[in-house]
Specification:
With 139 residues, this protein is of the alpha+beta class. It has three helices and six strands. It is 35% helix and 21% strand. A six-stranded mixed β-sheet has the order 1-2-3-4-5-6. The chain is globular, with a radius of gyration of 15 Å.
């Protein structure tokens, strides 16, 4: 796991760990568990802290963000609409053309194998976009 620069000189990983600890309830446990699954799936994922306090996981581009609300932990995949989701983990933001999200409520468990498959696919999609020639390069 790599860290990008974060606010006030603190590494993003420290800020994310602090956020998880501050939540101090099921939301922190859930966010921490999902963070662990992301990092288990690919140890080269970069943790970032963006948009005034949003944990972001990236590899060749944004994989997903992790936000916590009063009744839900939301993992939003930047290119979720382009990912296959045979187990239907995506249950939020389904109407858009780009993003898809997984809302996790208190007491809910996420299929770990299916989640890791989404992470791997998102990384592969991001990597394939980097290797395509630019549309501007056509003459």
């Amino acid at each position: 796991m790599t860290n990008s620069d974060a606010t006030e000189g603190q590494p993003a990983s420290e800020l994310i760990s602090k956020r998880i600890a501050e939540l101090g309830d099921w939301r922190g446990e859930t966010l921490g568990r999902m963070r662990g699954l992301i990092n288990e799936t690919d140890p080269d994922v970069v943790e970032e802290w963006k948009w005034m306090g949003t944990p972001v996981w990236s590899r060749h581009g944004i994989i997903c963000t992790g936000e916590s609300y009063k009744k839900v932990v939301k993992l939003t995949f930047a290119k979720g609409a382009s990912l296959t989701d045979p187990t239907h983990l995506f249950n939020s933001s389904l109407d858009g053309n780009v993003r898809r999200a997984i809302d996790i409520h208190e007491g809910e468990q996420v299929d770990e194998a299916a989640f890791k498959a989404l992470i791997r696919e998102a990384i592969a999609l991001n990597g394939s976009a980097k290797s395509k020639p630019s549309k501007k390069a056509k003459s």
